[in-house]
Amino acid sequence: MRRDHRPYVVKRAYNAFQAWYARRFLAPQFERLGAGCTFMKPWHVEVFGGPVSLGDYATVIAAPDKKVRLTVWSTFEGGGFIEIGPYALLCPGCRISAATGVRAGEGCMFASGVLVTDADWHGIYDRGLSVGETRPVVIGDNVWIGDGAIVAKGVTIGDNSIVGAGAVVVRDIPADVIAAGNPAVVVRSLDKDREMKTRRDFFAQPEVLAARFDAIDRALLGGNTWWGWFRSLLFPRRGD
Q1: Catalytic residue set
Q2: Measured in whole angstroms, how far is the alpha carbon of residue 235 from the centre of its chain?
Q3: Fewest beta carbons less than 10 Å away: which of 96, 112, 154, 234?
Q4: Whether residues 21 and 139 fall in one domain
């Protein structure tokens, strides 16, 4: 489909159902789920083990073929944890797995297909070990991890840094840089004199932001009819 044929009231109801589903079925699986979180297709979000915490105003987008998986599986006393700060963005196919601990700061963005893991998940010389070597991962504030990138055990990524698409991070990345490649290396420094706008800024006035998105939906979907929607589903034609 080239455009959304749903009537405005249908999209409103669908969004309300997604919010209800997240509160009813996902929220109990989190150690803490912050206020104002948005889940798109929450039935494709999997939370296993714990504790897993997600901060305020996070956005989690899942898809049938690209589930979002947050997994804590530890054989150590005290277990592991996943802690993701406020204003985060988790895109389809994002996987975060912890045996010791994965901590991400404020406003981090995880693109589609990102893998963050703090363990090997098998022993190098004893393949029967269920976790293997494990070291915590620390991701600073406002970090952007690109499509399909891998962040491996023991890595620290500094504030504001960007990890390029497909990169494999096996060593620490300092703050305010762009890193790319396999293994990832710094390819450029960010201009510290330029203003940095973060996802905290984007959500500075959540009520105003919600009203703006609602106005966009009204403008785009307001002219749609029930018959036009059903027709597009049952009898699609060129241009739909």
Answers
A1: 122
A2: 35
A3: 234
A4: no
